[in-house]
Hints:
Layout: E1 2-5, H1 7-12, E2 18-22, E3 30-33, E4 36-38, E5 43-46, H2 53-59, E6 69-74, E7 85-91, H3 95-107, E8 111-118, H4 127-132, E9 136-141, E10 148-149, H5 152-162, E11 168-172, H6 175-186, E12 192-195, E13 211-214, E14 217-220, H7 221-224, E15 227-229, H8 235-242, H9 246-270
Parallel strand pairs: 7-8, 7-11, 8-9, 9-10, 11-12
Antiparallel strand pairs: 1-5, 2-3, 2-6, 4-5, 12-15, 13-14
Amino acid sequence: MFVVETPRIARKSKPGQFLVVRVDERGERIPLTIADSDAEKGIITLVIQEVGKSTIRMGVLREGDTLLDLVGPLGKPSHIDYFGKVVLVGGGIGIAPIYPVVKAMKYAGNSVVSIIGARTKELLFWEDKVKEFSDELLVTTDDGSCGHKGFVTDAVREVVSREPQVDLVVAIGPVIMMKAVAEVTRGPAIQTIVSLNPIMVDATGMCGGCRVTVGDRTKFACVDGPEFDGHLVDFDELMRRRKMYVDEEKTALQKCRLNHVATQHTFRAEHKG
């Protein structure tokens, strides 16, 4: 978790929006959804999972360090309004971006059912923060180490089947999870919103790298989204496009790990004794 002092962004950010972050001059531009913000303190909160070169490099930062640059807030904010009964789903690292939506939906007067899940108990976080603004919180883990054993989709199915009226579902997390949630809600025709995080470069609508198919139209996630109607998103195409640079990502990750080990060895040698 990173708490970043950036007053201008903090004053402007709204739930659902994101930033493009660069760690240093050689770093790639990565989109990260704003997990929380405080305009009075001039801070925003980001939560990452170390899975690739850039997030690993962010992970070695310490309190007082700096990020080279932040661009944002970008994207359209979440549509916050009074809907009635809303179900808000965060899977894995998606728990972070669903939190400001949970808070805003509760402030708007909605009855909020929150569902968060992860593979194991160790990967869960912010249960108390989400619970504070939820009328009901359901927790799932794939291995059953915390909450209900199973997937967030199992909890969505349970809520949809027992509630006489669900007016809106919002799901944020892995693409396969958001696709599965949309399939659960397709039959009962419950409006379902998903937040997409495809490959991005400039994040201003110019490069076209983040294009997704929604219905029969091409949309750019950075300026038209990142939130879209989950029943219209072509998830299969999205997943194919996200795999375009898998080999390059693996090579970059391997080099990053080797450099990290070499740096540690150098540090130990310089400070030996």
